[in-house]
Amino acid sequence: MPEDRPRPWFWLLKSEPDTYSIDDLKRDGTGPWDGVRNFSARNRLREMKRGELALFYHSSTKPTGVVGLCRVAKEAYPDPSQFDPESDYYDPKATEEKPRWSMIDVRYVSHLPQMVTLEEIKATPELGEMVLVKRARLSVQPVTREEFERIVELGGGTLPKGK
Fold first, then answer.
1. Among residues of the chain, what percentage have pLDDT more than 90?
2. What average pLDDT does this structure show over 136-150?
3. Which residues, including other chains, have CB under 8 Å from residue 101's CB and lie 6 or more apart?
4. Which of 72, 75, 32, 76 lies closest to 53 in space, CA to CA?
5. Consecutive H or E run containing 74
6. Number of domains in the chain
7. Per-residue pLDDT tens for 46-76?
8. Which run of H or of E encompasses 148?
9. How far, in Å, CA of 46 to CA of 32, rounded?
10. Which of 5, 81, 92, 111 is the right S-S partner for 68, CB 3.0 to 4.6 Å?
């Protein structure tokens, strides 16, 4: 994301619903976005600022798509699972002095009245340049304001006010 782009930035965060769903986030209010083990996605987490909005995307389900909205509640900090040998996300190269992996906390904003599927996103011409379309596997992605607003509109939602 270009540094000269005015804030706030917008994001898309992917989660498998059987791991952590939009319903789980609604129940919890605020939850950790941890376990990211892709350097590009990790770098995006480190760029996020408190209060920025994200599309919550359910992956590895049929169909996949955007199901709701969340907001960055806490900026990037070391993911403790990288230090835990019992964790699936353990990284023997990570140290407390030099952590390799970061996480953020997100706060629930809303469900979209209807899922905006990946198929629908791909079929919408003004969304054709989204990272989701070009690099679909990336779990943390930047989204333009226009893309964010269009997806919320397609899902029948309303744009949140304030922080």
1. 89
2. 92
3. 36, 37, 42, 78, 79, 81, 82, 89, 91, 94
4. 72
5. strand 65-78
6. 1
7. 999 999 999 999 999 999 999 999 999 999 9
8. helix 145-154
9. 14
10. 111
The verdict on residue 133 lying in a domain is yes
> What is the model's pLDDT at position 135?
80
pLDDT, the chain, mean? 93
Domain, as residue range, for 14: 10-154
Q: Which of 150, 114, 108 is nearest to 133 (CA)?
A: 150
DSSP state of 95: -
Regarding pTM above 0.90, the answer is yes
> What pairing do the DSSP bridges indicate for beta strands 53-58 and 10-15?
parallel
Give a yes or no: residue 5 inside a domain.
no
Q: What is the pLDDT of residue 161?
A: 80
In the chain, the N- to C-terminal Cα span, in Å, equals 22
